[in-house]
């Protein structure tokens, strides 16, 4: 796909309709044993029931979509105190939980602009947890470069209708890439924002999967789902540098001092549905009209 066509696809994104793509290709990670290897993927819990998906790339650093840390209604960044990371949450339990102490979005991201190729290209945020989650509990993933059109990728995410456990789509395809944008035909929905897109091509040789993009936006039409993300390495390097320097960082008030040690604990009510709101409330996805 030519990059002009890919950009046109991003510009035509609208709200997801009621049509649903068949989910036969999705594996539900419903048991603790199913999570083995994916413990570092978790729910970014926002306020009173909103959520995105995020992934650890260091014991104290979570990568997610930039729009997840902004409140469109208030036209302001959310305070870190409203956001928690729940590693490997399944039902009412998670592998580990930590509040967010500091966070930063790509400085070129415009959170209150309509969806466009440029907003998707920069829709990345890095969350620093109040305390690290030990690698023995949830081993972080490395960030890598995504392959060309036709590359097979994999997505692990939460989403509306499957918000109580992670779902793993083992294989979907990159249908376009260029100018920092990536398009892939993975099955995503509200709540999948920030979900890691993995390259697993080295697994057969004993290498671990790498995070090569994040789900930023998507469209669903006539049962066909298209998702859009960005190339990551340069953005992640910029965000790590910003956290070190403090440039553009949104600070929490006192999470560092009072943060609990990582542990398995119960949250919410078993089987409860998330409250997914629009208009910048506790929304778990960036599927908005331009």
UniProtKB/TrEMBL annotation:
Q: Which InterPro entries match?
A: Glutamyl_endopeptidase, Peptidase_S1_PA, Peptidase_S1_PA_chymotrypsin, Peptidase_S1B, Trypsin_dom, TRYPSIN_HIS
Q: Tell me where in this chain the Peptidase S1 domain is found.
A: 15-228
Q: Where is this region: Disordered?
A: 253-290
Q: Which GO terms describe its biological process?
A: proteolysis
Q: Name one Pfam family in it.
A: Trypsin_2
| Key words, A-Z | Hydrolase, Protease, Serine protease, Signal
Q: Record's superkingdom?
A: Bacteria
Keyword Signal (UniProt): yes
**A GO molecular-function term, please?**
serine-type endopeptidase activity
Q: Is DNA-binding a UniProt keyword of this protein?
A: no
Give the Gene3D superfamilies listed for this entry: Trypsin-like serine proteases
- Cleavable signal peptide: 1-22
Instruction: State the EC number(s).
Output: 3.4.21.-
Homology family: Belongs to the peptidase S1B family.
**Name of the protein described by the UniProt record:** Serine protease
> What is the protein's species of origin?
Thioclava pacifica DSM 10166
């Amino acid at each position: 796909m030519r990059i002009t066509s890919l950009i046109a696809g991003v510009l035509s994104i609208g709200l997801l309709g009621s049509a649903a793509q068949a989910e036969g290709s999705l594996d539900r990670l419903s048991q603790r044993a199913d999570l083995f290897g994916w413990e570092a993927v978790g729910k970014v819990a926002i306020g009173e029931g909103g959520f995105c998906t995020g992934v650890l790339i260091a014991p104290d650093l979570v990568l997610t979509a930039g729009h997840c840390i902004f409140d469109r209604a208030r036209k302001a960044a959310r305070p870190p105190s409203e956001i928690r990371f729940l590693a490997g949450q399944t039902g009412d339990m998670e592998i580990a939980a930590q509040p967010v102490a500091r966070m930063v979005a790509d400085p070129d991201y415009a959170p209150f602009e309509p969806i466009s190729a440029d907003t998707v290209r920069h829709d990345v945020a890095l969350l620093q947890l109040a305390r690290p989650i030990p690698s023995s509990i949830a081993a972080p993933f490395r960030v890598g470069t995504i392959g060309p059109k036709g590359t097979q990728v994999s997505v692990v995410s939460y989403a509306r209708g499957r918000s109580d456990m992670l779902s793993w789509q083992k294989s979907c395809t990159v249908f376009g890439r260029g100018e920092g944008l990536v398009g892939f035909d993975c099955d995503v929905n509200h709540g999948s924002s920030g979900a890691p897109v993995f390259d697993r091509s080295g697994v057969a040789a004993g290498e671990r999967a790498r995070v090569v993009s994040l789900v930023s936006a998507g469209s669903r039409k006539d049962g066909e789902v298209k998702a859009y993300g960005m190339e990551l390495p340069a953005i992640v390097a910029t965000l790590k540098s910003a956290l070190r320097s403090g440039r553009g960082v949104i600070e929490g008030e006192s999470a560092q001092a009072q943060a609990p040690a990582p542990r398995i604990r119960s949250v919410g009510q078993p089987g409860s549905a998330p409250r997914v709101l629009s208009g910048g409330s506790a929304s778990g996805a960036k599927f908005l009209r331009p």
